[in-house]
Structure formats: structure tokens, C-alpha cells
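Reply to dn_fold:

You asked what the input looked like. This is it:
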Amino acid sequence: MEPSAAKQMLLDRVEADREMLVAFLRGFLRARSPNPPGDTREATRYITDYLDGKRITYDVVGPDPEKPNIVSSFKSQVEGKRLILNGHIDVFPVGTGEGWSQDPWGGELVDGKVYGRGACDMKAGTTASIYTYIVLHELRDQLKGSVTLTAVSDEETGGRLGAGWLIENVPETLGDCCINGEPSSPYTIRFGEKGILWLKIMVKSPGGHGAYPHLSVNPIKVASKVITELETLNDIPVPYPDNLRKVIDEGREAAEKALGEGGAEVMSRLSVNIGTIEGGLKVNVIPRECSFEVDLRLPPGLSKEDVMPSVEKIVSKYPGASVEVMRYDGPLWSLPDSEMASIMRGNSRLLGIDPVPIVSLGGSDLKFWSSKGIPSYYYGPMNHGMGTIDEYVEVEEFIHIVKVHLLSAYEYLTN
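and this is what came back:
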């Protein structure tokens, strides 16, 4: 299939701007925004300076001045749908940077790859949203409806101060559809995401001298037994809604490609991760307490109410053990064959890749729009080093994502 004249114009525009796009991304990566601590002011200024240069008006808003959010909107002369373009500014922390082959804050271009913390998660995707917004703003006389750009902070720690705050306080950030460029791989479109259930489990005991184990249980040993038993939560059956089971089954092959070997299985069931564990003062002392934090990811069809009875049953077997819910975001999804999902898939096909709708393993800011009943989707680059060393995005993949976002937003607002 050949692109229409209008789409070919947009594709030519992206190719003409290729060097500029790569340069913008590299500079964006140099603007440090690790979360924690979550201070994104440097990266926010990088974006607003660029918008200033394009004479784009915007507001910088939010409840925390160190974690600002950028909002910009425009309307065409013809009434129509409102499209939200969303991306986050904050990124995972780097720590000491040990193990990186490139400077994690350098934005280095090496062998067709741009390296840096946030390269794939998600400054490449946020760049696609910003660029799409600017081009649409230039073409607004051809569009029907309106567009809002949201470049937000706080995503890596839940998003309550970013996207979550915006949709409750800035009416123009609500609309008819929301898209972003979170890492998904060009081979999949994410129409839903697993829920997040974070738990803290505490084990207490009298404690004592390490040579007197008969006088006190060891809470670290107890915690290890609880951790082992929590793995059985993987076996909880998932009553998928009927309209999702077929799509998820059809997406298994693409999920393996996008998520890595075993990803399709993890996508389909509850997963358990022990993220932190603390306990003990000295090698010859029985600790008085041990605590650990658990990250459970719940596929569509499971809720906290379905899972917590099993958790509590395990914990109750051990005297001195207790559980606390730290965070819960239920699984959410949009229709996998909606207008925007079909448009995005069609435009990627036009460029030679047929992305399959699947459910995301991780969470994103799209949960805030999905929770309002707003169809929400993300389509971004492959996960290369997300959260670990040598994070990068391939330039060709990045350009492909930019093209799909621009073509899809334009089509959505001209239909």
C-alpha cells in the first residue's frame, strides 16, 4: 500500500528533520532527570526552551515545583475530537554509573544507537510526542478538533504528581483518546497494562544472641519462608474477560518478540518480585525484625480482592508476620481494535511492520486516562537496557516511532 499524498508529505517532513530529531533527543538525555529524587527542572527547561523557539505557548504546572509538568493545547477552526499526546520527563536513576560502556548522561551516538538513561524509557517517546505536537500545530488549519501535549514528571514513582494531578486539575488534559511512546517495541501496541499491587511484609520476634536460637525465632528465616510461599501466587487462575482472551492468545508470538523469551507467559499471569529486604544488626545477633517489599503485577481479570486472601493466608501461618498494602493500581485496558488502535497499526503496516495488540507487563501514566474511560495506547521503541546499564534506542527505530505517531495523530484528527 502506498501512502496518501498527505501522509507522504509528513513522512518526507520527518526524514528532512531526522538530524534535528536525533540532536534533540541527545540533548534531552543530557538534561538529567533521575527519579528518585525526581527533580526534572533541568529537563523541563530543555523542552520549554525548544517550545519557546517554535513560538508554542504552554503552562508549567503541578503541586511540586521540583517536579513540574508542561501542558500545551491548541484548537483547530473545526470542531472535533481532542487528542492527548503524553510523555514523561523523569527517568530511572543511574547510581554510580558503573558498568555502562557510555556516559549514562552523555546522549552518545554510537553505531546507529543513542545511549543514555531514558533513551528508550521514555525520552525517545516523549520526543515523538513533542515533535508530533509541533507539526500538528503548524498544520492546524487542516485538522478537526484539538490537541493537548502533556510532558510530565513523577511517572517513575507512580505519577500522582504528574499525569494523575493533571487529569484532576487541568480540564484540557482530558479528551477522546490518549497516546504515548512508552517502550513497547515496534512489533506491539499496548492496549492495556497489568495492575500494580505493592506490599510490605514485616516479621517481628523477641530477638537475642545468635548462640541462643532456642530462645527466639529468627525473623529473617521466617521472611525467607514467606517469600518462598508467595511464589505460589503465580498459580492463581486468571478469569480473563471474554473480549480480551482471544486478543491475548493471538498476541503471544509478538509478546515473546517484544518482551523476551517467556514474556507471553508472564503477560498472562500474576507475577511476584521481591524488591527489597531489610533485617539484622550483626552476624551473631538474632534480629528483632525483618521486612521486605513485594511487587505483584496483576493481569486483566484479577483484582486486589482476588489476591489478598491468598496473601493473608500465607502470612497468617507465621506468628509475628504482618502485611501492609503500600500501593494498588488495578489492571486497565482499552479496546484493542478501537479507532486509534486500528489507525496506529495501519500506519505501522504502511512502514513495513505489523504491530500486534498486547497487554503491558509494567504500568504507565496511561492508567490515569484509562481510569476515566478514555481510550489509551502506547507505541514506542524496544526495551534496550530499561532500568539497567547501557540503555539505548536505535535511531531507525526511533524515527519509525516518530513517523507512526505523527501519521496516526494526523489521521485521527482529519477523519
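The CA atoms of residues 366 and 376 lie 6 Å apart.
Hope that clears it up.
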